[in-house]
Structure formats: C-alpha cells, structure tokens
Design goal:
There is one protein chain. The chain has 6 helices and no strands. By secondary structure, the chain is mainly α. It has one domain. The protein is elongated.
Length: about 130
C-alpha cells in the first residue's frame, strides 16, 4: 500500500470490473494484479473457441458478433472471476487502510476514536486491532 495515503475500497472494486487485476494495480499490489489478469486470460483461452477471436476487421459490429458467440459457461466463469477480483480488491484496500491507521496510531479504524498504544483492541468499541 502507499505510505501515507488511504486507498478507496470502492474505487479498487470498481476498477476491477472492466479488467480483473486493475483494482490491484491501483493498490500497487503488482503480483496479485498479474495473477488476477492471468487467471481471466487463461480461462478465456480455455473456454472461448478460437473462431471467436478470428476476424478480418476490428469494428463495433464484429466485436458485438464475437461477444454473442462466446459460450455461456465462459461468460459465467469470467463473471465469477471478475466478481472475486472485485471483492479481493475491496478487502485488500480496507485491510490496508486499517493497518495504516493502526501503524500511525491515530485512531480506531472502526469507531475513529483515539487508540491506547498498549492495548490490542479499541477500548471504546472493543474492535480487535491486528
């Protein structure tokens, strides 16, 4: 994560929608971004027939025609991977923000009140600190 900037979990999740792994790029989680992108490319390579990729022109109509010929199981698998990538990016951003708040010792990531450095939980709301 960045050294002093809080990341927006919803932005990380939203960036993963058009391309799995893009939310992780925003979080600067390079290996994880590569793994998510590699997973979606591998699944597409295995489940989408080569006839979908072959075309003479790259026009809007040819892209629509190609998308209509993608098998349903490929669409479901890619949607599932995209959803998991979005959830993972959201959770990683949230966890990074909590860890950053704890390291800075400023406030509880749950209730926002000042923390006691000697305790492993917030004495205001009893949230456990990692």
């Amino acid at each position: 994560m960045g050294h002093s900037r809080e990341k927006r979990p919803w932005l990380a999740a939203l960036l993963a929608l058009p391309l799995p792994g893009l939310g992780h790029v925003y979080l600067r989680e390079w290996l994880r971004a590569g793994l998510w992108f590699g997973l979606v490319v591998t699944v597409a390579w295995w489940l989408v027939p080569m006839s979908v990729y072959v075309g003479t022109e790259l026009t809007f109509e040819s892209i629509l025609a190609a998308s209509r010929s993608v098998p349903a199981e490929a669409n479901v698998a890619i949607l599932f991977i995209t959803s998991l990538s979005m959830v993972d990016a959201y959770m990683m951003a949230s966890r990074g923000n909590r860890e950053q708040a704890i390291e800075e010792g400023a406030s509880c990531p749950h209730c926002g009140r000042e923390l006691d450095e000697d305790l492993e939980f917030c004495h205001w709301c009893t949230t456990e600190l990692e």
